[in-house]
Amino acid sequence: DVSVKIPLGALTAITGVSGSGKTSLVHHAVVPFVREKLTRSASEGERLHDLESGPMKRSPSLALRASAESDFIARLVEVTQSPLGRTPASNPATYSGVWDEVCKLFAQMRDSKLRGFRASRFKFNSPSGRCEACRGRGVQRVRLQLLPDVFVTCPTCRGDRFNAATLQVRFHGLTAADVLRQRMDEAWEVFANVPRVAGVLKTFREVGLGYLRLGQSATTLSGGEAQRVKLATELSRESSASTLFVLDEPTTGLHPVDVERLLSLLRRLVSAGHTVVVIEHHLDVIAHADWLIDLGPDGGSRGGQIVAEGSPADVTARGIGHTAQVLGERWRSVVDGSHLFG
Predict the structure, then answer these.
(1) Which domains does the chain possess?
(2) For residue 271, what are the contacts with CB-CB under 8 A and spacing of at least 6?
(3) Residue 201: beta bridge partners?
(4) Would you tell me the crossing angle of helices 195-206 and 256-271 to the nearest 10 degrees?
(5) Residues with Cβ < 8 Å from 107, sequence gap 6 or more?
(6) Could you read off the pLDDT tens digit of each residue along the chain, which spans 342 residues?
(7) I need a labelling partner for 189 at 20 to 30 A (CA). Which of 145, 210, 252, 334 fits?
(8) Are 93 and 103 in contact (CB under 8 A)?
């Protein structure tokens, strides 16, 4: 059995070797508990303050204090690596909501007004604007008897998704299909003077996804990419409600430069009054966290216990557990370690 405290308004890293119980603690105990309490508090008008978890069992017994203070959890956002969608129609533009804004822009063009086109015509599910051969997907499914189905480019629209009439409308010389083919970096420049679009695209660039195309099929994204699409979407919303963000190894597949960008964004969330909990192995994230909860001492039957809690500096100073040892070695290898725990 374990008991943990997760401070609000801080970046907490859940650490430990593989199989030490990180996922069980966060996804099977803390997240269901908070979700249940938020549902209950919505009906009771209760504000949630100070996360405390009691014994961690199959049905964990957890406690949460209600407070009238200003610091409380009003929302829970679980940013996982699960797919954005299971069909080629799903993509970063539709998931983030930025495509709704782009559709409004196309509807304001002179050619749209002359033809009576509304914003809905530029959505993939609109029978009036889409290519009917592929139903706005840009691809067609080929069913195979003994092998998995495959998707091929629609021969009618050649992957454009829209019918010929819809593609007559242009924004800055680009059709809706052209915009969907653009990378986030390119589109950000095109829509620089459209705050509602540029703001979302800017966030995608900040999380290291500037290379993704707006219309890139969700089925082609890795788990790490899908997670960052979700994070960018939440960041772009800039909700004022105090939120608990839960991320599972968000640095997966990231270059060190992108890890720095991610850390900056997580810090931005904390500075805005939100709470961030990450399951992590990456030393940069662990070292820059406000609070560590290290599980272990090893994996499997030798896991599931709290080895150490506290700031990275405190955990390192105590020297208990694998995480403390690795952080200590890194500390000793740096002449000026102020950047590590600063």
Answers:
(1) 4-83+223-341 (3.40.50.300), 92-219 (1.20.1580.10)
(2) none
(3) none
(4) 120
(5) 117, 118, 119, 121, 122
(6) 667 888 999 999 999 888 887 888 888 888 888 888 888 765 555 555 545 544 433 333 333 343 333 347 888 988 877 888 777 778 999 999 999 999 999 999 999 999 999 999 999 889 999 999 999 999 998 888 888 888 899 999 999 999 999 999 999 999 999 999 999 999 999 999 999 999 999 999 988 899 999 999 988 898 878 888 988 898 888 666 788 999 988 888 778 888 888 888 899 889 888 999 999 989 989 999 999 999 988 777 777 788 889 999 999 988 888 888 888 887 766 545 445 444
(7) 252
(8) no
CB atoms within 10 A of CB 236: 18
For residues 277 and 6, the answer to whether their CB atoms sit within 8 Å is yes
Phi and psi angles of residue 226, each rounded to the nearest 5 degrees, phi first: -60, -40
Tokens of 315: 């955990």
Q: Is 263 helix (H, G, I), strand (E, B) or coil?
A: helix
DSSP 201-221: HHHHHHTT-TTSBTT--GGGS
**Tokens describing residue 240:** 């004022």
b/e string for 161-176 if b means 16 or more Cβ within 10 A? bbbeebbebbbeebbb
Alpha helix (H) residue ranges in the chain: 22-25, 31-44, 92-96, 98-107, 110-115, 176-181, 184-190, 195-206, 223-237, 256-271, 283-288, 312-318, 322-333, 338-341
Alpha-carbon gap, residue 269 to 293, rounded angstroms:
20
In this structure, what DSSP letter does residue 126 have? -
**Integer Rg of the chain from CA:** 23
- How far apart, in whole angstroms, are the C-alpha atoms of residue 165 and residue 227? 36
